[in-house]
Structure formats: structure tokens, C-alpha cells
Amino acid sequence: MKKSLLFLLAALLVLPVQAADFTPLNKSTAAQLLDPASHRQPTIVALWSSDCSHCKKNLELLSTLVKSNKQLRVITVAAEPDSAILGPLLDRYHLPGPRYAYGNDNPDAIAYAIDPNWSGELPRTFLFNGAGRKEKVSGVISAQFAEKALGLRF
Amino acid sequence: MTELSGNQAGLRDSLATTVAGKSGFALGRRLALGFALFVSATCGALAADAMPGMAKAKAPKLELGASAAFSPDGTLLVAAKQGEHVMIYRSADEGKTWSAPAAVNAQPEAISADGENRPKIAFAVDGGLLVSWTHPFPKPNTGAIRLARADDGQHFSPPLTVHKDTAEITHRFESMLVLPDNKVMLAWIDKRDLEAAKNGKTPYRGAAIYAAVSNDGGRTFQPEYKLADHSCECCRLTSAIDIDGSPLFMWRHVFEPNERDHAIARLKPDGRLESVKRATFDRWKVDGCPHHGPSLVVDGQGVRHAVWFNQKDGAGRVHYGRLMAQGSELQVEGQLTVGGPRAAHADLASAGHKLAIAWKEFDGERTQLHSMRSEDGGKTFNTQPLAATDGASDQPRVIRRGEALFAFWRTEKEGFRLFPLP
């Protein structure tokens, strides 16, 4: 056991840092993930996709926010199944939180479970203050908006 | 003749993609998993990030984007992706049975066929079968517009790139239009102006629309030219032929400062730009990507009918309307909402006095396919459900054979399906 742990550590030291895989998001998981009761700390669930040029601006902002306030947790959801291009696109923002990509369920059902009022436009961002409040917005967001919705100072 | 359903073909395609995608990541994943176990066993640092559904099982990337068209002899043709080939499927019995697919591109290459992307089919005036697609480059959101032609409808020449620009940038979401005099026109979303602005550190709104004309039925293309600056970045384009034979292209535009309404370009018969006008007025202000492109058709009386998606007064809905001239501008006549709050990705076509719209709509359990038909030029419609599916599905298409209209829908579980719209 000790040997294998040492091997793993050694392997990690010599390899470039590998970001975690994407977790498949299906409709039941999506409903839980977007439930304010699932979030006991200020959390942003950020929907993005490889096709979405405006999503980069939000991911950049989240990358800054998460560094300046350790209370904030950022969860990303790629609104498409995992593929070879997704990881490298997200890795550049060094976001520490869980990363999801669409799973096997009907994509329309996943989208509905995320938010029945969402039409697929991206970026789509859900902001939880950790005390039961949830706000949602489409498009590029500002730090001021995130502060207000999350109840945090950056 | 081998018979198989579009479904079988689609599954084979997705399996191939999954297997290829998995092998390259096996080692990295094992190490990452090992590291996760190690860290959680020793310090529990990841416990706070444990979220539901953490089991790792990669979903296959389904690329269901397909186009359908009837050939002049009445055969139904479908163009869809299979691995690194565009394939043509033929049905002589309105989609009940299908021929074994034939490859359009002999040499494999990457092909875009998901979301707003799909290969397109058209018949040149001289009878040549034309197939276009976006070939994505390895860098995300880049690609080239490709076209292959089969003089005899069966044997394709090697595909050509319709534009001269070889930069590894966005040339994607093409729309193909066949014109009299054996002309073929394609227009697409092109980011060369955005890239130039970025390099010069100047702001540039959205992307641009470029077009290229062929005067010989798609065998060769003239150098491309710009139709408009400031298109939206990743919504499909649509095209139609105006009553006098002039080409029309329509797309989602970014009007100042960030209104994602639609614009329509009218070209002279030789392909030169005549005008670009605002076509919709819903004023959806968003710095984002809607991923919903429009559809346009011109009926026998010359009336332009369109369907599009926009957020209007805070609600995202599919809209129908007639784009009518009002002085030198356009205005929308008879605008109405299509379907319910989850309606999406509508298409339309007209034949004789008939106009038909098809769209998909998730009902909370399944994705439904609906249609709306008018026999009075779009003033009144009858709505009818057509089908439903539990799995993933492509956007529906409305296609025409003579005076008859059909809805075509590719679904993950049922394959290619054709629905007459009497």
C-alpha cells in the first residue's frame, strides 16, 4: 500500500498537473445540483460550452473571483458531452471546483432539469448565496453582480 | 441493396467516436483517480467538493446533425456524418427503407454535425449533387467550408474549400443556395475581421458573414467577399431565393450595443451585395450565444416567411412572421409565437399555397415534434403533434417534393423519420 502511494506521488511529481475528468451530468444529478438546498456555502454553477465565445469572459472572471475569496465555490457544467477538447479549454482557468459535462440522458431533459426556463443560451450562470437564495442570469456577468448575488466581497 | 435504419448507422458512428476518445485518456484518468483516492484517504480535502453523480462514465458525443432533400426523381436523400465521412443515405419509399450509405469524401476528415451544424444537400441546376459541410480544425471553433460535387449524383469529386482564406480561424455554419444559370452560393460565419481587430487591439462586435459564388455548378468558386460585419458567432444561417431570383441570406446579427436580432442580405443575381436590412425587432440584449439560428422561405407570391428564436419581454420563444418591405426598411407582419415555452429549433418550407413549420419541444418527459400548417399565407395555422422521442434528437427540417411538404427528424433512438404534412 505504502509503495503504491509513493509510486502515485512520484508519478504526479513527474507528470504535468492533470485536471480532473468531467463528471457526467444527468437529469437527476442536474436537479440536485441546481437545488439551493445542495449549497451550504456561496456557490456558482457556471454553464458553458466549447462553442461559446462569451463563456470565456465569465470563466476568466470566476477564475479571478475564486482566487480572491476562498469561501466561493465554482462548479462548471459543459452543456455538451465530454470530448477531447473540453478539458484543455477549461484547464486554462484553473478553477478548483467540480466539473461536469452532459451525460447520457436526453440533452433536452438535462437542460430542463437544470432550468425549465433556460433556452440553451450560454453562458448561463446560477449563483447561490449558501443560505437558500438562488439567482440566475444569461450572458456575461460582472464582479459586482456576483458579489451582490452571493453575499460576498471580492 | 442492404437495408438499415439511420439509427443503426448513427449508433455505429457514436461508438467509433467513443472508443477512439477513450483510449488516449485511459492512463491520465487512472492516475487522476488514484490521486483522488490518495488525497481523500489522507486529508479529506476533496470531501467538500463531493457532489451527486460523481461516478465517471463518459457519454458518447452524438452528432446527429443531418439534412434531407428530395432529388429531382423523387428519391429522398439524407446527408449525415459517420466518423470522418459525410454519408449519403437514399430512400425510394419516403424513409421506410434506406440504401447502404455512400461516402461523399473518400479521404477521411473531421466533420461538424452537432447543435447548429450539419452537412447540407442541394442539386445544382445542371443536375449535379452538391454536399457542403464545415470541416473543423483542431483548434476549437475554427474550420473550413467544404463542398463536394457528384456530376452523376453518385460519384463525388474530391471536396474543395470554397474560400481562399486558409487561416486557422472560424469559417463555419455555412448555408448553401442553388441559383439559376448554374450558380451556387455559400455564405458562412467568418472571424477574419474579428481576428484582425484583436491583433490591432480594437473592439469588434461579433463575427462577419462572408460569401462565395460558383458560376459552374459548384466545380470552382470565385474569391469570397464580405456580406456584413457584426453577425452573431454560432447560430446557423438560412437562405432562400427571392421572387425575382435574387439570393437572400439571413442570420442572427448583433445590432448595437448587443441586440441579437436578425439581418437579411439581398444580393443581385450575379452575387453582388444589394442591401443588408434588419429583419426582426425583438431587441434581445445579451452578451451570450443563443445557439438558435433562423429559417427563411419565399412563397410563390413572393412573401418572405421566417421563423426565429428570440427572447422578447424576458421570455425566450420561437417566433413566426412575414418580413415585409416598408419603404426602404423591413417590418415584421403577423408575428406570432410558435409552440410553448420550450419550443426550439423551428424550420419551415412552402409549396403552392401551403406553408408548414416544424419544431421540437420538450414536455418535461420527452422531446416532442410538432407542426403548424397554414393554407392562407401564414394568417392562420393548424397545429398538430407529429412524434416524440426519449433520447437525443437533431433539429427538425421541413422539406418539399413538388407540391408536398414533409417534416424530417433524426433521433438517437428511432433514426431517420419522415412525416408527410398534408
Task: Describe, in plain words, how this protein is organized in 3D.
- The complex is a heterodimer of chains A (154) and B (422).
- Chain A has helices at residues 2-14, 27-33, 55-68, 86-91, 107-114, 143-150; strands at 23-25, 43-48, 73-81, 99-102, 124-128, 134-138.
- Chain A has 154 residues and is an alpha/beta fold.
- In chain A, helix 2 packs parallel to helix 5.
- The longest helix of chain A has 14 residues, at 55-68.
- Chain A starts with a helix and ends with a helix.
- The model of chain A is unreliable at 5-18 (pLDDT under 50).
- Chain B has helices at residues 6-23, 26-42, 192-199, and strands spanning 66-70, 76-82, 85-91, 102-103, 120-123, 129-136, 143-150, 160-161, 171-179, 183-190, 207-214, 225-231, 238-241, 247-252, 262-267, 273-278, 295-298, 304-312, 315-326, 329-338, 343-351, 354-362, 367-374, 382-389, 397-401, 404-411, 415-421.
- Chain B folds into 3 domains: 7-48; 104-290, Neuraminidase; 299-422, 5 Propeller (Tachylectin-2, Chain A), CATH 2.115.10.
- Chains A and B meet through helix 1, strand 1, helix 2, strand 3 and strand 4 of A and helix 2 of B.
Summarize the structure in short.
Chain A contains six helices and six strands, in the order αβαβαβαβαββα. Chain A is α/β, with parallel strands linked by helices.
